[in-house]
Amino acid sequence: MPKLKPDTQRARREHILDAALTCFARGGFHATTMQTICREAGVSPGALYVYFDSKEALIAGLCERDRAEFAERFASLATAPDFLEALNAIGQHYFIDEGAEKQRFVIEMGIEATRNPRIAEIFMSVDQFCSDNFEALFRRLQEEGRIAPRTDIQTLVKVFNVIGDGMFWRRAIHPTADMRAVLPVMIDLIGTLLNPVEPKPSHSKVSAREARR
């Protein structure tokens, strides 16, 4: 049997992960079997086990993919001139544009993490990764004088997580949940907690204005 090209291997791996996501979101961790995922993906068990040897391995693959996507989106957030506007764009993706299937998967894995130590390790590593990134960002913005938080940074990150978790949960369980009206209010609330600082005009700009006078 000829060896598949790297691009073909990556595409097949992504296809299997997509099928696993659908199955886990639809039936939960325990009701989903490797055979269920094979049927959803349209692949043989042998082809599936080339890439993933267990359901835990599939969960790890899905979480790693989510972490990589978050890191890419976060990079643009960290360099954005308007932090709240960039945060709103990320919220638009995760709470409005992205299918509710992903929210159901996250909720399912969070519940399974309370029973399965391996899933807990995988799930909490992603949660910690996101928290660490936001804590580092908030500290950076504070050091740069761009925000003056109304509480300490660690507590702020915890509140931020609770807000995000609540929006995830609502969208996952409520069939008509629509975050379009909620998201702007949440961004305003976060803005109040972060307390953005208006940049002071530079000396050069003042001098130029005075020169025109």
Automatic annotation (TrEMBL):
InterPro entries: DNA-bd_HTH_TetR-type_CS, Homeodomain-like_sf, HTH-type_TetR-like_transc_reg, HTH_TetR, Tet_transcr_reg_TetR-rel_C_sf. Residues 10-70 form the HTH tetR-type domain. One of its GO terms (molecular function) is transcription cis-regulatory region binding. SUPFAM superfamilies: Homeodomain-like (SSF46689), Tetracyclin repressor-like, C-terminal domain (SSF48498). Residues 33-52 bind DNA. Keywords: DNA-binding, Transcription, Transcription regulation. This is DNA-binding transcriptional regulator, AcrR family.
